[in-house]
Specification:
With 352 residues, the chain is α/β, with parallel strands linked by helices. It is built from 14 helices and twelve strands. The chain has a seven-stranded mixed β-sheet with strand order 3-2-1-4-5-7-6, covered by helices on one side. A five-stranded parallel β-sheet has the order 10-9-8-11-12. Strand 9, helix 8 and strand 10 form a beta-alpha-beta unit. Helix 11 packs antiparallel against helix 12. It is elongated, with a radius of gyration of 21 Å. The N and C termini lie close together (10 Å).
């Protein structure tokens, strides 16, 4: 089938990250994909080689191409009006899918795959379908490309850790965050030991937040080597494949948003998730719903809440063996389910 995936880049690269993974995954299965992106700049470092079968369209107002078989609007963005009008004029109603945000809340299972009839405009009489990614068999699943397990099995973890500057006794951590309320605690704790720690800080907001915290802590110096138990390395933007490998190599991963959460789950390493904060506090319920699904032990649950600012108090001590076992058990549950691209393909074929 010929797919048109529409993506508007709002912030933080998660939207374009998810859409690119989906487009590349579908194309890798023999589908033809056109990815419409209003701001494709991040793909220059995220996916510099492109992907066979994926045609990138710089989505500007008025851009029109002959419609395909399936339209995916990611995260509620409206497809190009001229594109819909052209499809209607051609008498071709594509399978129209609204790919929603990821959530573990109960409503996802109730709303997944529900129809939304179009009542006006050139698409009047068509049906749009809600497709919810999720963590259970009653949802749309999570992105997982077919070759992921084999790629991870062949990964040279010890070599990657050495390249990152982590010795055999070093605690290696990835930090990919917004501005978590408890961020100031993290470098102070790592600096105090009891083992050497290497903190890899992602480019962008993560680096800005860490540098700001270090400048306000007299015990820390704004340099790569802090002279104690902690060293910090500020990382450049990397490809999606290289980001996966960072997660595989680390002992503890701090991730944010949707895309990196899913990749942390596949990594099977202990992780802490910073959910996107919402002004009305709705993210607290969303976070708890995920922790319930994760079957997180009490200390991991409390660490998440303090890290996200939904609970007060200091960050609890981490128990990496127990947290790793929790992550691997969650991964095993997910691996027993079909992935998102597989479910999307089946759904689109059925609706055609």
């Amino acid at each position: 089938m010929h797919w048109d995936i529409f993506c508007k880049v709002i912030d933080n690269y998660g939207d374009i990250g998810v859409c690119w993974r989906l487009a590349a995954d579908l194309a890798g299965r023999g589908e033809r994909v056109r990815l419409w992106v209003d701001d494709p700049a991040a793909l220059a470092w995220m996916a510099p080689q492109g992907a066979p079968g994926v045609a990138l369209v710089h989505w500007t107002p008025g851009t029109v191409h002959p419609p395909g078989d399936v339209v995916v609007e990611a995260f509620g963005c409206d497809p190009e009006p001229g594109f819909i009008a052209a499809a209607a004029a051609a008498g071709r109603a594509p399978v129209w899918i609204n790919l929603e945000y990821l959530s573990a809340e109960a409503y996802v299972q109730c709303c997944h795959a529900l129809p939304s009839p179009m009542l006006q405009g050139p698409a009047a009489g068509w049906t749009k379908w809600f497709f919810y990614p999720g963590f259970t068999a009653a949802t749309g699943g999570l992105l997982r490309e077919p070759g992921l397990a084999a790629r991870q099995a062949g990964f040279n973890r010890s070599g990657a850790r050495a390249a990152a500057g982590a010795g055999a006794d070093t605690l290696l951590l990835n930090l990919f965050c917004y501005e978590p309320p408890a961020l100031a605690e993290l470098p102070l704790r790592l600096q105090q030991g009891p083992q050497p720690a290497r903190l890899l800080v992602a480019a962008g907001r993560s680096r800005t937040a860490v540098e700001r915290e270090i400048e306000h802590k007299k015990c820390l110096k704004p340099s790569k080597n802090l002279g104690c138990m902690l060293s910090i390395s500020y990382q450049p933007h990397v490809t999606q494949e290289a980001f996966d490998e960072r997660l595989w190599a680390a002992d503890l991963n701090f991730v944010r948003g949707e895309d990196s959460l899913v990749r942390a789950l596949w990594a099977g390493q202990p992780f802490i998730w910073q959910i996107y904060p919402q002004a009305d506090g709705a993210h607290a319920h969303k976070l708890d719903a995920f922790l319930d699904w994760l079957q997180a032990p009490a200390d991991l649950r409390q660490f998440h809440r303090v890290w996200n600012g939904t609970a007060a108090g200091p960050l609890p001590a981490w128990d990496l063996p127990a947290w790793g076992a929790c992550a691997r058990a969650a991964r095993a549950r997910l691996l027993a389910q079909a992935d998102l691209a597989t479910r999307l393909l089946g759904f689109a074929k059925e609706k055609r």
